[in-house]
């Protein structure tokens, strides 16, 4: 019995054992470390572990996933910026946290030392209400909030998250005043919404689309076009409010990693995202896959960074 | 070996005095660390509101406990021996230092080797055996078996 | 009848050889990681998550659930034997359990813990089967105001935990509260009390404090007083509890089970709160509270039953509403979504074999744990006869690796050195670390919910008395306070501790 157990454990964890170190060309030299900036079991971690076998196959290399949780990613990004730029260390990065962090505090690392390699997921922010709520659309919600300033409470997954920033943007676009109530995560937000303790839950599309939508009604998704996972939920722009916000996830490396390694890695990620088997698995996890090459992704960043800076200058979300 | 007896005063409850002093130091540390935080008001509490209240309360209780300890019946501290205290703390601190740069094997050898010196009954041959057995056990169970993300050697 | 049919369906699904095998595997692995301090079920589940891709969904869930409740069993073993609580819910077990071990009654403590846990697990599994959906709705009615009042009540309970002076216990709770505030403030997003260390932005880890205050400090004190440890090994008398032990333990188990089943459904500190309040309850109803803190078997039986019941009933919100009540449940939720299962009311209707199979497997798993653990007691107790000079380096190594593995960083180990020193000072100052840990666990709940409630009510404090559950909890807390202050009661309290204060 114990033997089976052990074999099973060893089998599962073989990936974490350092392999032999014969000199070879990238990526055969040694295992590639991918840093996850969040604790095991979180949605980024689950996604990383789901991708691991596919990416190993595409690259023909071993991959080790290392969790370095803390300070909303700053600890992981600091480590990435200090890693040797030899193509054996990558890290997941998440927006808007990765960008808003640069606005809201002095960081321990230089954001310029990190370069995006591939975007994998683009998960629009959405507002949901209880099924018995009187609001049927974002317009009705905004009208109610106009008549009753501060009475509409919006739960988010924390200060500076996409839910929170979307709330601020909506307040400015619609000229209303909402009460922002931060929770530690989407689970708590959902609980509070179902228990009728808050009016609106700020969730991402992946956090309700694949799941159980009994008792909740999505009002709006803050994307530029409706996500494939939530085709029936209108966007904010469709309802007359120019607010776009989403949570993106992808991989990044040190800027000095040779361009051909970055390209090879990025291409491997693209093939994984296109793999029908992986697509099936992503569907189960309700991951809105949206591959973008590192260059294309980085092109979007300055604009978003600037808009965060503008919000920050007007209403700093951290005191 | 080194045994320090409580030296201050003949009267007074020494454990209470020590407790009071520890409380005052911890509370003061809290007040100092939170000095720049926005306090806010009861209805709109800032991040510094509760730390200020709690830290002040700890200092206040510390003062009371110290004063009460001074006037209460005499009770001495238990014996304090510096050897186990210092050696254990140094052993663990060394493990912390070694774990990230030198890897598990060297860190474990340091921890067990130095840590074993804390006990006077320790025999050299047993320490050597402990090092071998526990380090091997640690590699198999923690690193391989449970997948603790720590490298083995300094490379 | 429908209920019976469902149970039969559950047992027939859970009793297939594959599912039994995975149940046993989970329970064994859980016991193993529970015994190794520091390495918690959360990290283990995360590591095993990828393998579950290749298993049938029910087998995967059965194994993951087994790891979780197996760890609860294993965690109390180290708490009793070496005074090292692996997680928040076994902190109180260490108080009286370790004293029993010192008196040579480790076997009795372990046996009562295992039997009590099994009984509690059975009852709350049944509770989950019968009243799951209804209980889940109750959990939803707990909003910020209710949580605030509940934590106030819980903190007042903590003062009863300490067997020494009340004022020192209050100071210890406050230090715990202060430690709980270290890190990023949820409500404003700003960092506080971090001394600028990024490693502290997410606060201090529970395991770091527990290992420092309990593990490291305990080792140092034991090494200082060699005369004490010879006694432990010499005094081991019998493995099985006496008839008197059973007589004292069973009502405590009953009370603990009830409390745990109820509090476990609440998201947040459910299992922890239930263990702490079970201890308080036992001490309050006891005719002779003086025995607590010195090896009272009720002090082991009640909390152990409560934390196991709490662990089982924390599945209720997950399975019926899809709401994870703690990190482990969040992981299970992840495992379910990987298999395309969405926990929620629909699961019971659409996939009854999954829901009932899991429920039945929990009972089977608990029975297996009992069978595994009872014979192991002899082995564990024999561990105490190993000379301490050989034992403590091993404990040190487990502590260090456990602390490191929480976030994979050496910073936490270094921090544990600081807490070890602080714990040593507390020993010398005769301050008990238990209340500090409760303050630490409940502190963030207290503060965020207080501020959240006031935020939603737009600064109106009357929410706390306008909501009936919140009001009831505050009244109960007030009652507890009065009980402590009323002169008559205070007299018995003083009598209770007269030997320690003189």
Automatic annotation (TrEMBL), chain A:
Going by the UniProt record, its keywords in alphabetical order are: Signal
Span of the signal peptide: 1-24
* Residues spanning the membrane: none
Q: Translocase: present as a keyword of the record?
A: no
InterPro entries hit by this protein: BUG (IPR005064), Bug_dom1 (IPR042100)
Keyword Transferase assigned to the entry: answer is: no
Q: Which PANTHER family match?
A: BLR1237 PROTEIN (PTHR42928:SF5), TRICARBOXYLATE-BINDING PROTEIN (PTHR42928)
State the similarity comment.
Belongs to the UPF0065 (bug) family.
Q: What is this protein called?
A: Tripartite tricarboxylate transporter substrate binding protein
UniProtKB/TrEMBL annotation, chain C:
Q: Show the stretches that span the lipid bilayer.
A: 20-39, 45-69, 108-132, 152-179, 200-221, 259-281, 318-342, 354-374, 386-404, 470-489
Q: Which residues does the UniProt record annotate as the domain DUF112?
A: 20-438
User: Where does the source fall among the domains of life?
Assistant: Bacteria
Matching entries from InterPro entries are given as: DUF112_TM
Q: Give any Pfam family that matches.
A: TctA
Q: Is Cytoplasm a UniProt keyword of this protein?
A: no
Protein keywords: Membrane, Transmembrane, Transmembrane helix
Q: Does the keyword NAD apply?
A: no
Q: What is this protein called?
A: Tripartite tricarboxylate transporter permease
What is the source species?
Microvirga brassicacearum
């Amino acid at each position: 019995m114990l033997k089976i157990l052990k074999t099973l454990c060893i089998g599962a964890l073989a990936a974490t054992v350092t392999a032999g170190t014969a000199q070879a060309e990238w990526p055969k030299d040694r295992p590639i470390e991918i840093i996850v900036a969040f604790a095991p079991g979180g949605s980024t971690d689950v996604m990383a572990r789901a991708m691991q076998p596919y990416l190993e196959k595409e690259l023909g290399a071993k991959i080790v996933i290392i969790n370095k949780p803390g300070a909303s990613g700053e600890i992981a990004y600091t480590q990435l910026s200090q890693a040797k730029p030899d193509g054996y260390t990558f890290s997941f990065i998440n927006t808007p946290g990765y960008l808003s962090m640069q606005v809201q505090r002095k960081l321990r690392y230089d954001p310029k030392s990190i370069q995006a390699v591939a975007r994998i997921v683009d998960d629009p922010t959405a507002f949901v209400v209880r099924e018995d709520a009187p609001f049927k659309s974002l317009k009705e919600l905004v009208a109610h909030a106009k008549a009753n300033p501060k009475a509409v409470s919006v739960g988010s997954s924390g200060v500076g998250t996409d839910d929170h920033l979307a709330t601020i943007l909506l307040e400015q676009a619609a000229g209303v005043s909402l009460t922002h109530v931060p929770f530690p995560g989407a689970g708590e937000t959902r609980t509070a919404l179902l228990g009728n303790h808050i009016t609106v839950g700020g969730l991402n599309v992946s956090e309700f689309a694949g799941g159980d939508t009994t008792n909740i009604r999505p009002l709006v998704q803050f994307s530029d076009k409706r996500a494939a996972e939530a085709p029936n939920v209108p966007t904010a722009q469709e309802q007359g409010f120019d607010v776009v916000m989403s949570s993106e996830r992808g991989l990044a490396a040190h800027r000095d990693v040779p361009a051909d390694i970055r390209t090879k890695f990025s291409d491997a990620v693209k093939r994984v995202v296109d793999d029908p088997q992986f697509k099936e698995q992503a569907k189960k996890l309700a991951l809105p896959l949206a591959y973008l090459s590192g260059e294309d992704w980085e092109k979007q960043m300055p604009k978003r960074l600037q808009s965060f800076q503008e919000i920050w200058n007007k209403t700093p979300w951290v005191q | 070996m080194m045994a320090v007896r409580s030296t201050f005063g003949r009267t007074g409850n020494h454990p209470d005095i020590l407790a009071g002093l520890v409380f005052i130091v911890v509370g003061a540390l809290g007040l100092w660390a939170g000095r720049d935080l926005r306090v806010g008001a009861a209805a709109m509490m800032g991040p510094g509101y509760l730390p200020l209240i709690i830290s002040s309360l700890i200092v206040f209780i510390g003062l009371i406990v110290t004063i009460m300890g001074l006037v209460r019946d005499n009770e001495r501290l238990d014996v304090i021996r510096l050897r186990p205290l210092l050696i254990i703390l140094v052993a663990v601190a060394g493990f912390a230092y070694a774990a990230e740069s030198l890897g598990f094997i060297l860190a474990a050898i340091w921890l067990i080797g130095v840590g074993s010196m804390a006990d006077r009954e320790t025999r050299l041959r047993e320490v050597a055996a402990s090092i071998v057995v526990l380090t091997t056990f640690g590699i198999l169970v923690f690193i391989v078996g449970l997948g603790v993300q720590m490298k083995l050697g300094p490379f | 009848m429908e209920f019976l049919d469902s149970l039969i369906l559950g047992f027939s699904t859970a009793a297939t050889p594959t599912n039994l095998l995975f149940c046993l595997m989970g329970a064994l692995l859980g016991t193993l990681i529970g015994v190794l301090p520091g390495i918690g079920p959360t990290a283990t589940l995360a590591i095993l998550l990828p393998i579950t891709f290749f298993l049938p969904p029910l087998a995967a869930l059965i194994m993951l659930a087994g790891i979780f409740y197996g760890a609860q069993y294993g965690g109390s073993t180290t708490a009793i034997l070496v005074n090292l609580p692996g997680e928040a819910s076994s902190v109180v077990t260490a108080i009286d359990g370790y004293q029993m071990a010192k008196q040579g009654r480790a076997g009795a403590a372990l046996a009562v813990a295992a039997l009590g846990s099994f009984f509690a697990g059975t009852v709350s599994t049944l509770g989950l089967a019968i009243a799951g959906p209804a209980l889940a709705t109750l959990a939803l009615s707990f909003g910020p105001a209710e949580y605030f009042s509940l934590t106030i009540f819980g903190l007042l309970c903590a003062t009863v935990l300490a067997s020494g002076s009340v004022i020192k216990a209050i100071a210890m709770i406050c230090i715990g509260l202060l430690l709980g505030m270290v890190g990023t403030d949820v409500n404003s997003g700003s960092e506080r009390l971090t001394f600028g260390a990024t490693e502290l932005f997410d606060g201090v880890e529970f395991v770091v404090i527990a290992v420092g205050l309990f593990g490291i400090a305990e080792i140092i004190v034991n090494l200082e007083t060699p005369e004490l440890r010879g006694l432990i090994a010499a005094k081991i008398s019998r493995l099985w509890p006496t008839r008197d032990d059973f007589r004292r333990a069973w009502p405590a188990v009953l009370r603990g089970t009830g409390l745990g089943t109820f509090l476990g459904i609440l998201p947040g500190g459910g299992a922890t709160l239930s263990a702490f309040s079970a201890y308080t309850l036992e001490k309050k109803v006891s005719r002779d509270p003086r025995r607590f803190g010195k090896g009272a078997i009720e002090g082991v039986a009640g909390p152990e039953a409560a934390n196991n019941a709490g662990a089982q009933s924390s599945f209720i919100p997950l399975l019926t509403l899809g709401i994870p009540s703690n990190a482990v449940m969040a992981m299970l939720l992840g495992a379910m979504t990987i298999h395309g299962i969405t926990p929620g009311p629909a699961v019971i209707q659409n996939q009854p074999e999954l829901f009932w199979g899991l429920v039945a497997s929990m009972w089977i798993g608990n029975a297996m744990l009992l069978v595994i653990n009872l014979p192991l007691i002899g082995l564990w107790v024999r561990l105490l006869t190993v000379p301490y000079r050989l034992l403590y380096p091993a404990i040190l190594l487990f502590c260090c690796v456990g602390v490191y593995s929480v976030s994979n960083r050496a910073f936490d180990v270094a921090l544990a050195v600081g807490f070890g020193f602080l714990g040593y000072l507390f020993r010398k100052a005769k301050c008990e670390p238990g209340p500090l840990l409760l303050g630490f666990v409940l502190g963030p709940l207290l503060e965020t919910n207080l501020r959240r409630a006031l935020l939603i009510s737009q600064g109106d404090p009357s929410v706390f008395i306008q909501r009936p559950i919140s009001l009831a909890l505050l009244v109960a807390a007030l009652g507890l306070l009065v009980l402590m202050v009323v002169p008559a009661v205070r007299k018995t309290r003083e009598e209770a501790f007269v030997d320690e204060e003189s």
